[in-house]
Design brief:
Helix content is 40%, strand content 21%. By secondary structure, the chain is an alpha+beta fold. It has 2 domains: 1-70, no CATH class; 72-340, Transposase Inhibitor Protein From Tn5, Chain A, domain 1 (Alpha-Beta Complex), CATH 3.90.350. Helix 12 packs across helix 13.
C-alpha cells in the first residue's frame, strides 16, 4: 500500500478489514491489474500485466479468489458506504435492479445453468445461454459531469435454477426473491435512509409490490404494469358478522379507463438522458391477488408522441407520486443496462474462466464492483489539483462516458504507480510531452 498513489490507497484502505494482510495486498494488486489489463480478466492475464510488480508465487494470487477466507458481503458493505456517504442524497436514494447472464461453458462450472438471453431473444424466439445469471442492485448517481445518471453496482447475487437447488438440497429463490433479499440487506444497513427502486417488467409482480408496501415510507417500487390488472376499492368496515371482506368494489381496469379518459401532455426525461413529449392517463387503485390481499398504487399510461416507443403502463406503490415522477423513475432504470454493456466492453465481464464455487461467486461480482470503484476513483481525481486527461472524443458527444473515466484512471495509474515502482518515473517525466501522450494513449485505451 505504501507504493500506491495516495488517492488509490485512501480508497482501498477501508477494505483491509475484510482480509488478512497478505491477502489484502494481493487483492489490491489484482484490482489494479484488472484496471490496467485489456482483454480477458483471468488471473494469468492480470499477472502478465503486473510483471515484476507481482511479487511471490503466482498460485498465491490465484488463491485470493479460489481459497482465501474473505466475505464478499463485507466488501459490498464497504462499497455501499463509500457510494451512499459520498453521493447518496439526503431525501430519497434511487435504486435499480436487474439481472444479466454471463456465458460460461464447462462441465464442472459451479452454478452454471441454461438462461434466456434477453438481448438475442424476441417475443417469438428464445435464445438460450449456458452460464450464470447475476441479480444486481445498483445505486443511481447523477454526476455534474455526466449527461445521465450512472448505475453503480453495490450488491450482487447468483441465481441458481430450481433443479440445481433441489439437487443440492437448498431452498430455491427466484430472481424476484433475490431482489427482495438484496433490498432488505440495504434497508438493514441503512435504517434511516429512504429508497425508490425501479425494475423492469420481469420483476413487475404482486409479490415485489407487497414487499415494498410492507416497508412503505422507506421503500417505493416503480415498474411496468398490466393493462388488465385487477383493481379494487379498499374493503368496507367489518359489519360484525361473517368473514371480513378482503376487497371492496371492483374498479375499471387501466385499459378501460384509458379508453374513456382524456390524455394529458407531458414533457419528461426519457431513456438515455434525453427528453420526450408524451401523453399520459393516470389513476389510483388497489392491486389484488387472491390469497395475498391488496396493494395501493398509482398507475400511469404513457403514449410516446414520436412513435418510437410502444404504449406502456407503469405503476408505483406510493400513490402520492406524480405521473412525471413515475415515468422518469422508470426510464432511469435503463442506466443499469448501460452499466452491463460497459462492464462487458471495458472491464472484461464474462471473460473469467474460474469454475470452482469460490471463484465463480467472487470473480464476476468483483468485476461489477470494479465499475463502481473506477467511478469513485475518477471522481477523486477530478477533485485533485490536476484534472485527469484521456477523454475519448467523437462527433456529437456530450458529457463524460465511462470509457473516459476508465481511460483517465488507467493513464494516471501508469504514470503515477507503474512507472514510479519500476524506477522510471523521472525518466518518463523527461520525455517530450507529445511522446508521453502517444505512449499513454497506447498503454491506456478504453478497451
Amino acid at each position: 500500500m505504501s507504493s500506491m498513489p495516495a488517492s488509490a490507497a485512501a480508497l482501498l484502505l477501508p477494505f483491509a478489514s475484510a482480509f488478512t494482510q497478505p491477502t489484502f495486498e494481493r487483492a489490491c494488486l489484482l484490482l489494479l491489474a484488472a484496471l490496467l489489463t485489456t482483454g480477458r480478466r483471468t488471473v494469468a492475464n492480470l499477472l502478465r500485466t503486473l510483471g515484476g510488480l507481482a511479487q511471490g508465487d503466482p498460485s498465491s494470487y490465484r488463491r485470493v479468489l479460489s481459497a482465501a477466507q474473505w466475505s464478499g458481503w463485507r466488501l459490498a458493505a464497504v462499497v455501499c458506504r463509500l457510494v451512499l456517504v459520498r453521493f447518496g442524497p439526503r431525501a430519497i436514494i434511487g435504486l435499480v435492479a436487474d439481472d444479466t447472464v454471463t456465458e460460461h461453458k464447462g462441465k464442472k462450472v459451479h452454478g452454471k445453468g441454461r438462461h434466456r438471453d434477453p438481448i438475442r431473444s424476441s417475443h417469438s424466439y428464445t435464445a438460450w445461454r449456458w452460464g450464470h445469471k447475476w441479480v444486481v442492485l445498483a445505486v443511481l448517481v447523477q454526476f455534474p459531469w455526466a449527461r445521465r445518471p450512472w448505475a453503480l453496482p453495490v450488491l450482487v447475487a447468483l441465481y441458481r435454477s430450481k433443479e440445481d437447488n433441489q439437487r443440492r438440497g437448498r431452498p430455491h429463490r427466484t430472481p424476484i426473491q433475490l431482489v427482495q433479499l438484496l433490498v432488505r440487506i440495504l434497508l438493514h444497513w441503512y435504517p434511516q435512509r429512504r429508497f425508490r427502486l425501479a425494475v423492469d417488467g420481469n420483476y413487475a409482480s404482486h409479490e415485489l409490490a407487497r414487499a415494498a408496501h410492507r416497508r412503505a415510507g422507506r421503500l417505493t417500487l416503480v415498474s411496468k404494469f398490466y393493462a388488465d390488472a385487477a383493481l379494487y376499492q379498499p374493503p368496507p368496515p367489518y359489519a360484525g358478522h361473517g368473514r371480513p371482506r378482503v376487497k371492496g368494489a371492483k374498479q375499471p381496469s387501466p385499459q378501460e379507463v384509458v379508453a374513456h379518459r382524456r390524455r394529458t401532455p407531458l414533457w419528461v426525461r426519457w431513456y438515455g438522458g434525453g427528453r420526450r413529449q408524451v401523453e399520459v392517463v393516470t389513476g389510483t387503485g388497489h392491486w389484488y391477488q387472491a390469497g395475498y390481499g391488496l396493494v395501493p398504487l398509482r398507475w400511469v399510461f404513457v403514449h410516446d408522441q414520436t412513435g418510437t416507443h410502444r404504449d406502456e403502463y407503469f405503476f408505483s406503490t406510493d400513490p402520492r407520486l406524480t405521473a412525471r415522477q413515475i415515468i422518469e423513475t422508470y426510464t432511469g432504470r435503463w442506466n443499469i443496462e448501460t452499466t452491463f454493456q460497459e462492464a462487458r466492453a471495458y472491464l472484461g465481464l464474462e471473460t473469467t474462466r474460474g469454475w470452482c464455487r469460490h471463484t465463480v461467486q467472487r470473480a464476476e461480482p468483483c468485476l461489477l464492483g470494479l465499475y463502481t470503484m473506477v467511478t469513485l476513483l475518477y471522481e477523486r481525481l477530478l477533485a485533485g489539483p490536476q484534472a485527469p486527461r484521456g477523454r475519448v472524443e467523437w462527433a456529437g458527444k456530450v458529457g463524460v462516458a465511462f470509457s473516459d473515466a476508465l481511460t483517465a484512471v488507467r493513464r494516471w495509474l501508469w504514470a503515477k504507480w507503474v512507472f514510479a515502482n519500476a524506477g522510471h518515473e523521472q525518466a518518463f517525466e523527461k520525455l517530450p510531452a507529445s511522446f508521453r501522450e502517444v505512449l499513454l494513449s497506447a498503454l491506456a485505451p478504453a478497451a
